[in-house]
Amino acid sequence: MADIIDGKAFAARLRGEVAEGVAAFRAKSGRAPGLAVVLVGEDPASAVYVRSKHKACVAAGMESFEHRLPADTAEAALLALIEQLNADPAVDGILVQLPLPKHIDEMKVIEAIDPDKDVDGFTIGSAGRLATGQDGFVPCTPLGCLMLLRDRLGDLSGKSAVIIGRSNIVGKPMAMLLLRESCTVTIAHSRTEDLPSVVRGADIVVAAVGRPEMVKGDWLKPGATVIDVGINRVAAAEEGKTKLVGDVDFAEAMETASAVTPVPGGVGPMTIACLLHNTLAAAERRETIG
Ligand code: NDP
Question: What pTM does this model have?
Answer without folding.
Answer: 0.97
